[in-house]
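Record pair follows.
FIRST:
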Amino acid sequence: MYAIGIDSGTQGTKALVVDAATGEVLGRGAAPHFMVARLKPGESEQDPAVWVAALEAALREALKESKIDPAKVVSLGVSGQQHGFVPLGADGRPVRPAKLWNDTSTIAETEYLVERLGGAKSYIEKLGINLAVGFTASKILWLKKNEPGNFGKLSKVLLPHDYLNYVLTGVVRMEYGDASGTGLMDIRNRRWHSEAVAAVDSSLDKALPEPADSSLPLGCLKTEFGAKFGFKKVLVSSGGGDNMMGAIGTGNVAPGVCTLSLGTSGTIYSYFAEPFSDPEGEIAAFCDSTGGWLPLLCTMNVTNTTELYKAFAGGLTNEQLESLAGEAPPGAAGLIFLPFIDGERVPALPNASAVFFGLNRSNFTRSHLARAIMEGTILNLGYGFGRMKELGLRPSEIRATGGGAKSRLWLQIVADIFQTPVVTLQEQEAAAFGAALQSIWTWRGEQGENVSIVDLAETMVKKGTDIAQPNSGRIGIYSALQDRFNSLWRTLRSEFQIR
């Protein structure tokens, strides 16, 4: 028996064919997405039809590579980019293109909604989560204000993965994890918050699907869709947002396990069995897609900084960068890099610039600069990671994914700064893999098996060979650097605002 995992992201769709008994990945496929062109600054949109076409193309490629009998596929799960807004009309079609997570044209709407609920602290007290500009709520209000004709056609509010689920099954539903990223849900009680919903529109509650438990199957794949691929009866799980599916795909389904993604941006999140809320709103307080909660920290600057340095230093390869940085000692002889190349989300410094601090004759070298850049990205994550620990995180292991996870030195820096073991995973497509595992969990439950997602993940999520243990001799060095890093950005905060 086999399972399918789909990850529909911003850049494209990826598909995996997975052995439902062992978790082995047998086939892979991918297809690109295209943005809506000629938009205004800050707008980011895609036609949902692009996602459907990419899903079909990626799925065909994965099935071809796997060489399996499609009739033996029993389950399918979908992961999707969070926070997007698909306005569905009464005819079951989107009334306009979807506004994506990185659409920042809704700043005014975000500020309006926060003020309607009494300000940021009040918003967090009421919903357990802060309203970020990228969240879905402000996009709905944007539609109401800017395109009243389309708002009048609105029948259902869907997120990207919900829309794909609808195309596959004909069922309209949201699950707790992705729904928690709308900015409209009371994350502690996992239900829509009536005051937040009414602040957008008095009749919006009729367009919001009732959030459902993520362990419940969505339904079965439509016969006409399955026939395109030779499928028979395929159970479709609830799916979820890409971070929620990434948590499952990395085995982050029990307290203490953390997932760290080192890509252009940096993301770290961990499973909580009880509701998590940050009174300052720096840590996004999401629900997960297994029945728990998933506080998440996101920074904007990781491999974007090293890519710039590689080009500046004459076109270094990743291997050359790592070798060069390895020539400098831990702590880069006191040189600190504030990596705010693209501003920053946490700490909240949208207008910040990058800074090298502590240059002297001994550390003004290519190797010290390289190491300081790599360390600075983790010290930046370290601020938010420290906030998570203050709020109850007790990390036992960090599971690293993303391009930066291929660097053995970067993994060691993470282990040393966070004082937590860091491991890699055999399967790096965590979101698509997590969607497949969730579907297997759901399917086995429907067969009457009493299997937990924790047991399933322990069996099927396999660690790689890279393991970085924290070096206790570096605690003092990195603890002092973390304190100085935090002090520096606070000291320079007023200067950043005049950028």
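SECOND:
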Amino acid sequence: MKIAHIVVILTIFLIAATTASADSVTLRNGDHLTGTIITSDGKDLTLKTDYAGEIKIKWDAVKEVSSDKALYVVTSEKKTVNGTITSDGTSLIVHTSGAGEVRVPLAQITIVRSADQQAAYEKSLHPSLIEGWKGGVNIGFALARGNSDTTNLNTGVTADRKTLTDELTIYESSIYSTNGGTNSGVTANEIIGGIKYDRNFTKRLFGFVSGDFTHDELQGLNLRSIYSGGLGWHWINHPSTTLDLLGGINYTRETYSSGETATTPAMSVNRNLPGITTGEIFMHKFGASTVVTQDFYFYPDLSDISQYRFSVDAGSVTKINKWLGWQLSFSDRYVTDPPIVGTKTNDVILSTGLNVSFSH
């Protein structure tokens, strides 16, 4: 009997300890909920329960709330107060370890975080370089043999790492096409790539540096390198829509060469050009499955105002599942006066195919 009594007492004690350690929320309609307070955005309070999972509760419906463990309460003045909480219907009372009771009106609360969420938030402020990447890999391939003899390969890579203070973007697209038979040869061989880094100075103003690189065999372009730097403005900055405007200066280096033919000798041209950089970058999400992006850069030549270059990149990705999607991309590179005789001023890449997304 003594052992049975001990077991009963221990069971009652454990139940009481579990109940005592739970956070509690009392609603204005008299309902009483217990669980663990996870977070709040100032409008809703999220309570994790054992019996119903996570429950979102409107602050207007809350009469009283109390927590057993310390929470982080962020006010509209960006002040963070840490401690267990209770309420009196109009304010949260934060019981801190050093400053005693701090009263925060409900109207001034912007965020409430648990200790785990606060740790994750603080880590997000200073992530390592290998963290926070999102992007995708695009690939398309076509092959024809028999009466036709063609091979076509196009690729694309985008990777973006965005934090609260900066953003790093890397991109690449290419097309390679050959034609066999009587008129055999390479019909397209173009590679475009680049990298861009943004640093926020204020909520709207940011600085940027970038490098854009192009190789185009049929234009005789071995490599065009455009190095830019300047300032930008977050004109629209919404989770579903963003629009950035940019302006600055650039240094462009181009190297061209042509092969020797029966009618023309081999030719090699190197050009170093100072210029201006202007541009815009746009993104919009259509629902939960489709994202459209577009950017445009215009590079007037300061050494000859009649000469300029521009680049256009646009694309869309529609999710098929969490990691697979269908992509459509368009790229155009234009130069007013290519030095190799007989070459055209611009080249366009239009591709479609599968997109494999990744995140880290």
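COMMENT: The CA atoms of residues 29 and 61 lie 8 Å apart.
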